[in-house]
Amino acid sequence: MAQGIIVYVTRTGNCRKLAELAAKETGFPVHEVQDLVNRKGLWGWLKAGFQASTGTASPIKEAELNLAEPDTIILVYPVWASSVCPPIRTWLRKHTKEIQNKKIGLITSNLGSPGERVRASFEREFYPLKAFTVIQERETETERLQKVRIFIENLLKN
């Protein structure tokens, strides 16, 4: 049985719900990475997209985490400018050596964009993904659960 962890960033709470859904399906603990940049309002939204598209990292706050034991990491974050969101970028850079040989899966949330550019952006900057899915905010709970289950199945198979 795989040992894993779920690491997420959320701006509106949507990705927290997705991380918790994945945790129910896997039994993996959930670890929040808090973005210390104010992303509220139009200015915050614009800044988020600009920083994501320019490869900028942002200051984060996170609890101590032992990444030696998990062999699988599920990342959950919102899509910002079809790129890696800055707080996850910071987290990935901080933990690069600890996670480089682990299975990595990515669940992203957005309002409707296709995910091919998001996956390509992540893999170009960091690692190949073992599994990937895009969950749109307008999808029903049943659709979300189905996508998460398929994602987990793909992530955990040899």
Automatic annotation (TrEMBL):
Superkingdom, natural source: Bacteria
InterPro entries in alphabetical order: Flavoprotein-like_sf
Name of the protein in its database record: Flavodoxin-like domain-containing protein
Taxonomic lineage from the root: Bacteria, Pseudomonadati, Spirochaetota, Spirochaetia, Spirochaetales
